[in-house]
């Protein structure tokens, strides 16, 4: 792959480094020697399983396409261990050139200088700018007025459905897509019809002991009211009580033993749908390969808009620059090259179920032929991320706190208003504490 054109001022910036590199190349300029002279870029990520295999393929592709850099990946355990190690590396001067973070975690890391901002002008030179991303995904990368993360994807909460069961239930249109529903009542009616043609339940939804699963559905429904939860630093949480109670009440209604099992954990829900015993499945796009491997006839769609505003819970795997005290200018610029290269070659990332964030990929004719991925790609325009705060985001305790507050209500049919109040009390307690990365409160989102 040829290098993109670079302004002369940037060439001047790297003139000294280029001269040193040229000295090493005097001995010979064969392809082998060029490969040995490639800059090694350390890349940390938390992608395992099918995601990890797909990412390895993307890295092989960018490594093979050019001779200026080689990516050396390090895969670490998902969740808190990963984010702790990333923070320690940035603090201790051992940070990699680039890393993957969930977009929802950036608000806790940009303060205190744990991340370096991206140069939007340099990204634009490489064909990566606001025009090449869905607006909410691009905007999520900004914090404190600077761009701290560049999204690889969106991975939203979606609705999968068994096409045979739903066809038997009479809920598919002439194109084999689910009939539209635009209110809670219509959706409940549709799911009951599906239940009548299913061996077990109309809808698989696993939530027991899984705060993230409870939050994903709740926040989808809540933001469909045209609202977002607000978490002002040092203040009190803002959550519309009526909309929150209405959303949680609908979740209760789904768990009636006919539409969905009242006591299902996530793996049980996966198994129920994967074995063809239920007609629909509330899940993340990451289960796409699971269902393809199961061999069931299925399709997928965005979760229907039931409260007037198109919105769906999502997060994004995003590229960040962990802080380096004295970054090597050549490696830093090649890191920009790497991110641009992998975004432009991210079509195969859709194979993992995720929606590539780079619009030239999802707007291509080839992507339109990708089923079922193309059927929920519009979710990228309507993503609802966790409300920004230092303690929210994927792999944090925030979603677990929500689950601890509402699980008994879903199990026993208790008072949704009391559960929402308990959740807000937990959140307000966290809001009263300083961000460990910015204890002086000097950084503002």
From TrEMBL:
Record key words, sorted: Signal
Keyword Lipoprotein carried by entry: no
Signal peptide: 1-34
The keyword Transcription belongs to this UniProt entry's keyword annotation: no
Protein name, as recorded: Carbohydrate-binding protein
Organism: Microbacterium barkeri
